[in-house]
Amino acid sequence: MGSSGSDHRPLIGVTTYIEDARYGAWETRSAVLPQVYFDAILRAGGVPVLIPPVGDGHRELVRRFDGLVLSGGADVDPGLYGHEPHERTRNTRPDRDAFELSLLEQARAAELPIFAVCRGMQLLNVALGGTLVQHLPDTLGHDEHLPTPGVYGSQTVETLDGSKVAQIVGAEVTVRCHHHQAIDILGAGLRATAWSTNGVIEAVENDDETYLLGVQWHPEEDVTDTRLFAALVDAARQRL
Fold this sequence. Notes:
Blueprint: E1 11-15, E2 17-23, E3 26-32, H1 35-43, E4 47-51, H2 58-64, E5 67-70, H3 94-109, E6 114-117, H4 119-127, E7 132-133, H5 136-140, E8 153-159, H6 164-169, E9 172-177, E10 182-183, E11 191-196, E12 201-205, E13 212-215, H7 227-237
Parallel strand pairs: 1-4, 1-5, 5-6, 6-13
Antiparallel strand pairs: 2-3, 7-10, 8-9, 8-11, 11-12, 12-13
Helix pairs in contact: 2-3
């Protein structure tokens, strides 16, 4: 257990990614994550701890955390689910995939509350034997889920009555999104609990008591709504 005592706020681990970054006079390989993620965790009452995708101390990491966020980022390597890469599947990060898959395995074994965002939800699905649609415009005929690189789109999402995500955000919510891939075949033990109006799976969760929720959109981008992060923090607080 990551922390103890009623006066302690839950420690929430958040995955990051290694990229070339520039700051001040420096340009170097760095572990990076948009600030909106840890701002959202702070607003929700947790303490964010950033996890670079290096090393193999996954068991030690989950022992110190009360909850885990799998953040967004690059496409998941399609080889992990037995597919050849689509011509639009680019900039995969196999090292990050391997690190997060092992971290996720340890987190699930420890029954750590988990919240997976965008790529994080896709990785969760692949980890449990599911597959992905590699390029949504091929099936939807439009690119509304990723209208322009670096620009978030907007989608209306409808949730399944009685699901975790419905209890958190209600029957319908307008979300910000930035992805060209999505869940195709669901992984074992997951059920879809939200969909965009054009049929894309927007949320998945499990049916047992362990807190596990993934969303395809980017809730960290909405500074007025911390409900999904607050739900994770509340689940993590039960471990204190």
